[in-house]
C-alpha cells in the first residue's frame, strides 16, 4: 500500500515509492484510472504544485516517457492514454497560473479540445470533491505542458498503429475479385483455394472492433476515441479515393458495387459503435461515397 506523507526528510522516499507504484499496471476502480488519481493526490498532499523547485515532475515525466518503449502494443498505449489524459484533465481543473507565470493560450490539438475533454470526463466518472484548485508555480505549469505533449504522442501512436494495420487491407478493397460478384463477396463465399475476398473488408471491421474494445476496456475518454476514429475514417476516405484516381481500371460498375458493399459495412459499424465513440466518422467518407455513386 502506498503511504502518502509530507516531510522534507522522507519526501524523496515517498517519491521513489510513487514511481515504483505507477510502473505497475494499477488498473481501474469504478472506471477511474488508479495511477492518474494516485499521482494527483500525492502531488496535492506534497504541495508539489505550489513548489518553486521540485524534482518530482521530472521523475514522473521520465517514467511516462519510458512507457513509450512499447509502442506496438495498443493495450499498453491505451492504458497510458487513459492515465495521462485523466491526469491532464485533473491538472486543467486544478492549476491556476499566477499573473507572472501565466502560460500562453493553448494551440495544440488537446488544447483546442479542452471543452469536449472536460464534458467527457466531468460526468459521474470524476467526483468534484477530488479536485482542489491551487496556484501553480512554474514547475507544475511546465509539467502540464510536458504531459500534454505526451498525451498527444500516445494518441498519435495508437492512431498510427491502426493506420499501419489498415493500409494493406485498403489496397485490396477497391477492386472486386473476378471470381464472384460483390454480393457474393460480402457473404464470404469464394471458389477455389483463394481466401474469401470479403475478408479484406471484414479485416477492416475486425481492426476497428479490436481497437474500440481496447479503448473502452481502458476507459479512454470518449472525446479522444471519437477523434481517433474520425481521423481513421478520413484516412480510409483518402486512401480509397486516391486509389480510384490512380487506378483507372478500378473505375467500373462491378468495382463500384464491391466498394459500396464494403462502405455499407463501415456504416453499420458506425451505427453499432454509436455516436459516443464513432462521432462523425461516417461523414468523413463522403468523397469516396460520392465517387462510388458515380460508378454505380
Automatic annotation (TrEMBL):
Dilute domain sequence ranges: 58-296
InterPro entries recorded: Dilute_dom (IPR002710), Vascular_dev_regulator (IPR052072)
Transmembrane segments: none
PROSITE patterns: DILUTE
Signal sequence, start to end: none
Highest taxon listed in the record's lineage: Eukaryota
Protein name: Dilute domain
Source organism phylogeny: Eukaryota, Viridiplantae, Streptophyta, Embryophyta, Tracheophyta
Amino acid at each position: 500500500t502506498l503511504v502518502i506523507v509530507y516531510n522534507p526528510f522522507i519526501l524523496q522516499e515517498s517519491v521513489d515509492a510513487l514511481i515504483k507504484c505507477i510502473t505497475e499496471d494499477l488498473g481501474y476502480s469504478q472506471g477511474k484510472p488508479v495511477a492518474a488519481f494516485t499521482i494527483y493526490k500525492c502531488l496535492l498532499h506534497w504541495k508539489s504544485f505550489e513548489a518553486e523547485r521540485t524534482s518530482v515532475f521530472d521523475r514522473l515525466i521520465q517514467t511516462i516517457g519510458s512507457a513509450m518503449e512499447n509502442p506496438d502494443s495498443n493495450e499498453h498505449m491505451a492504458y497510458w492514454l487513459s492515465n495521462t489524459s485523466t491526469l491532464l484533465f485533473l491538472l486543467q481543473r486544478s492549476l491556476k497560473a499566477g499573473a507572472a507565470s501565466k502560460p500562453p493560450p493553448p494551440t495544440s490539438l488537446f488544447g483546442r479540445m479542452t471543452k469536449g475533454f472536460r464534458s467527457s470526463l466531468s460526468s459521474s466518472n470524476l467526483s468534484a470533491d477530488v479536485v482542489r484548485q491551487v496556484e501553480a508555480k512554474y514547475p507544475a505549469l511546465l509539467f502540464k505542458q510536458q504531459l500534454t505533449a505526451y498525451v498527444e504522442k500516445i494518441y498519435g501512436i495508437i492512431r498510427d498503429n491502426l493506420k499501419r494495420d489498415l493500409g494493406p487491407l485498403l489496397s485490396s478493397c477497391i477492386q472486386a475479385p473476378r471470381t464472384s460478384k460483390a454480393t457474393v463477396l460480402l457473404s464470404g463465399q469464394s471458389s477455389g483455394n483463394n481466401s474469401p475476398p470479403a475478408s479484406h473488408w471484414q479485416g477492416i471491421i475486425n481492426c476497428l472492433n479490436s481497437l474500440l474494445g481496447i479503448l473502452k476496456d481502458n476507459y479512454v475518454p470518449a472525446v479522444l476515441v471519437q477523434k481517433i476514429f474520425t481521423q481513421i475514417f478520413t484516412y480510409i476516405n483518402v486512401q480509397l479515393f486516391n486509389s480510384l484516381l490512380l487506378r483507372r481500371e478500378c473505375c467500373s460498375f462491378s468495382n463500384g458495387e464491391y466498394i459500396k458493399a464494403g462502405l455499407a459495412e463501415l456504416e453499420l459499424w458506425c451505427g453499432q459503435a454509436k455516436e459516443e465513440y464513432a462521432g462523425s466518422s461516417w461523414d468523413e467518407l463522403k468523397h469516396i461515397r460520392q465517387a462510388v455513386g458515380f460508378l454505380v
